[in-house]
Amino acid sequence: MIAEKETLKFVKEEDGIQVRSVWDENNNLVTYAEYRLMGVVPEAMKYYFDNWATEVLKVNPILLKAAVIDHAEGFEIVRYDSKVPWPLDTRVFFSLRSVRTIKPGFEYMMLMTSTGVDSFIEKHFSDPKEKKGHVVGNVFIVCNLVKAVTDAKSQVTGIDITYLFSVNPGGSIPKSLSEGQG
């Protein structure tokens, strides 16, 4: 998928962040973004990854709520609720979440997927009152990869971030809305 990023529709570039996105005929959304932040060290993103449930709400205005709701086999089970335009119902996502250190001080990754979370959805999202006005979506993969940018002396001067997001938000999304989102 990452090798084919050029096949995704270019959405926008702002402040050095390049975003590509596409909705397919099955209501699946794929978004790919790359950007460089100078003056930031990889450990800052490791902190963000480790404290994702509280930190993501500070930077992602689409999310209404994010929480670690359980643990299983070394993974966090997370729930996050996403705003969608009226009159659509709020989208709810459940995912296994893992943070991995690839190279300490230089490279970190956070992965999320809905694969294997069905029993947690049943356990944590069974109240009919809570289900009203909500649609459960499916996360194929969310991957945040952070790599250090170094100077000629191998000193860390910033970070490169690669972001891949592939979901099916569930329910019906009118084409007029999906074409404007990404």
Helix and strand content put the structural class at: alpha+beta
Level of helix content? 10-25%
Gyration radius, rounded:
17 Å
Instruction: Note the total helix count.
Output: 5
Query: Mind summarizing the main beta sheet?
Result: 10 strands, mixed
Would you report the number of β strands?
10
Distance between the termini: 16 Å
Name the helix and strand elements from N-terminus to C-terminus, one letter apiece. EEEHHEEEEHHEEEH
Mean pLDDT over the full residue set: 87
Please give a quick description of this structure.
It is built from five helices and ten strands. The chain has helices at residues 42-50, 52-59, 118-124, 128-131, 175-178; strands at 9-14, 17-23, 29-38, 63-72, 75-82, 90-103, 107-113, 134-136, 138-150, 156-168. Strands 1, 2, 3, 4, 5, 6, 7, 8, 9 and 10 form a ten-stranded mixed beta sheet that branches.
